[in-house]
Structure formats: C-alpha cells, structure tokens
Amino acid sequence: MAGGCARADVYGSLDEIERDFGVRPTGLHRPYVDDLTRPNPDDPTGRSTMRRVPEVLDCWFESGSMPFAQVHYPFENRDWFEHHYPGDFIVEYNGQTRGWFYTLHVLATALFARPAFRDCVAHGIVLGDDGAKMSKSRKNYPDVNEVFDRDGSDAMRWFLMSSPVLRGGNLVVTEQAIREGVRQAVLPLWNTWHFLSLYAPRRGEFRTDSRHVLDRYALAKTAALVDGVTAALDVHDIAGACEQVRDHAETLTNWYVRRSRERFWAGDADAVDTLHSVLEVTARVAAPLLPLVTERIWQGLTGGRSVHLADWPAADLLPHDDALVAAMDRCGRSRRPRCRCGRPAGCACGCRWPGSPSPPPTPRRSPRSPTCCATR
C-alpha cells in the first residue's frame, strides 16, 4: 500500500502465482512464499510493493480442505470427486465439533453450498485404569496381547464398541470391564451354541413353524433383534446395537434354553430347529460386533464358509409377535433366575439353579466345536 493505493490478491493455484511473480514456489507455506514480492499494479508511482500478509491462515483450513485437496480437485479427478462428495461417514474425537467437523462444513458450504458429510460418530476419550489419559510411559492400561490370549480379540472389540466412548463419553479401560463384556455377551452366545451342539440329536434345520409358545417367543424375539439392530446400525448407534445383542444373548441362555432343556434331551425336533434358526440369524446380526465368535458359531451351525459372506437377515425372515414378546418379557423380568447365593443369573459362585433338573450324564454326541471361546 502506498499513496492510498490498497490492493489485495487471493491466489487459487501455483499457476496464478507463477503468472504474477514469475517464479513457481516449491511450497505454499512459509518460508517458501515469504520472498514473493511484486510491484503494486494499482500504484501509478510504482513505489509500493505487494508482499504476503503477516497473518497465517488457521491450520484447520488445510484439514477442512482434505476432501478435495487430497485428489487435487478441481485440477484433476473432477468426475471422481463429484461422484464421491460429500462423504457418507466420518468419525473422530468429539472435540472436533469445533475443529475438523466444523471446518469441513464451513468450506463445503462456502464452495459447494452443501454439507461435507452425511453421517458422523464423535467418540470420547479412552482413559487408563487410573483415570488418566492412556499413556505408554504410564503403562496404565492392560497389555493388549495378554487380553487377546486370555479373552480373545472379540472381547476387546466388544468392550470398545459397547462402551459410552462411541456416544461421546469417556471410557476407563480395565481388565475387569473387558471380562465383564465376555461374561455378558460372548459367553451367553457361545454357551447357547455349545448346548445345542452337545444335546441336539442331529444338525438342525432352518424352520420357523413351531407352535410351542417358547419357540414362538424365541423366533419373535429374534425378529425384534433384527429390526432393532438394523435400526441402530443404520444411524451408527453401535453401542445401542451392542445393548440389544447382549440382552438377546441373555434371553436365549437364561430364559429360552433353561426352560427348554428337557425338550432337547428328549430330541424334540421343534426345539432343535428353532434354536438352530435363532442362532443362525443371531450370528448374522451379531457378526459386525463379534466377528470371530459368530464365525465359529455360523460354521458349526451351517457348515458354510463364513458368516461374513452371508446376507443380512431380511425383516420378514422370522415371524413377528409383538404381543407375545411383550408378555413373555414381563414374565421374564418378574421371574428372572437367581442363584442360591441371591445374585443374578450368570454369577460364578457355582450354585446349582434351584429346582432345575440334573442334565444327562453324557451328551447324545460329541460337540461340533470346541468349548474355547478365546478366538483371536
């Protein structure tokens, strides 16, 4: 600025800079652009010089430019970008609501008059067992390899996906909490499958026409699971999907199986086929959350190559009966099984269930899969 001749130029490419300054900079950051000067074209005296403004643009500008800058749009890949923008999904720490998420939307609105992405998940902070931020120097978290060896990698996956951290809350990582997830979700599913593999006289078939009230309930409850998990995953509510799978696993092992054992021991075809069908659908629904355990269950049930190659169950695959599910759930809540010690079902005290008949001394056949659930 000189003699009242003020001028500001904003450059959109290296070509424009080279055109005006006669040199092509090797970078667009300081110090590469600090030496670029040129006479002010608006100053007739020719005494004023244009230089880089002293302010530095917020570094979040670059992060917000990521969707188009990474593919060098609009200079290259124009067709690809226009068919892939805005993004379908993005995930980051919830502090990015005022950082990356915000800048992405600001630039997308300014340049394209639309949002930068359609859906996002904002997670919280993962803390060590002392409540402080996880740190290698502090070693305030369980050894991951030990967790994998002892509990299986599904245990760690479930612990993270079912936690408040995927709803923006903070998460304290402890061995006890990881094992609790195994007890609440992994073991009930595995034990239900193991029970079927031990006591069913034959491999089950996919069949949903049983008229026994417990079978109808199990089928309708699983149909509700499909609806609920589908709805949760459609809006990226991962923790909500985990809650439904956990509750369903508890219903299967502590309600349906415990009240149907005599039917299995007697070789009841309706019971065998119903549990087979329920587990087959449950394995498909839970596969994104427990990929290794459900893989073992699926292969044992069907002999198929992989549950992850199977289709997601359709909404009408199983019969719905909302009234029966509601009535049976009320009954289950009022008569939830408890051990002799008074604790809820599933405690490790070793008590026998009051009034429960003893199982047969030997299974009808060998299980189709080992009892270990610590798959890696």
TrEMBL record:
<dbReference type="GO" id="GO:0004822">
    <property type="term" value="F:isoleucine-tRNA ligase activity"/>
</dbReference>
<dbReference type="InterPro" id="IPR009080">
    <property type="entry name" value="tRNAsynth_Ia_anticodon-bd"/>
</dbReference>
<dbReference type="GO" id="GO:0006428">
    <property type="term" value="P:isoleucyl-tRNA aminoacylation"/>
</dbReference>
<dbReference type="InterPro" id="IPR014729">
    <property type="entry name" value="Rossmann-like_a/b/a_fold"/>
</dbReference>
<keyword id="KW-0436">Ligase</keyword>
<dbReference type="Pfam" id="PF00133">
    <property type="entry name" value="tRNA-synt_1"/>
</dbReference>
<protein>
    <submittedName>
        <fullName>Isoleucyl-tRNA synthetase</fullName>
        <ecNumber>6.1.1.5</ecNumber>
    </submittedName>
</protein>
<feature type="domain" description="Methionyl/Valyl/Leucyl/Isoleucyl-tRNA synthetase anticodon-binding">
    <location>
        <begin position="215"/>
        <end position="324"/>
    </location>
</feature>
<dbReference type="InterPro" id="IPR033709">
    <property type="entry name" value="Anticodon_Ile_ABEc"/>
</dbReference>
<dbReference type="GO" id="GO:0005524">
    <property type="term" value="F:ATP binding"/>
</dbReference>
<dbReference type="InterPro" id="IPR013155">
    <property type="entry name" value="M/V/L/I-tRNA-synth_anticd-bd"/>
</dbReference>
<keyword id="KW-0030">Aminoacyl-tRNA synthetase</keyword>
<feature type="region of interest" description="Disordered">
    <location>
        <begin position="356"/>
        <end position="376"/>
    </location>
</feature>
<dbReference type="InterPro" id="IPR023586">
    <property type="entry name" value="Ile-tRNA-ligase_type2"/>
</dbReference>
<keyword id="KW-0547">Nucleotide-binding</keyword>
<dbReference type="GO" id="GO:0000049">
    <property type="term" value="F:tRNA binding"/>
</dbReference>
<dbReference type="Pfam" id="PF08264">
    <property type="entry name" value="Anticodon_1"/>
</dbReference>
<dbReference type="InterPro" id="IPR002300">
    <property type="entry name" value="aa-tRNA-synth_Ia"/>
</dbReference>
<feature type="domain" description="Aminoacyl-tRNA synthetase class Ia">
    <location>
        <begin position="45"/>
        <end position="168"/>
    </location>
</feature>
<keyword id="KW-0067">ATP-binding</keyword>
<keyword id="KW-0648">Protein biosynthesis</keyword>
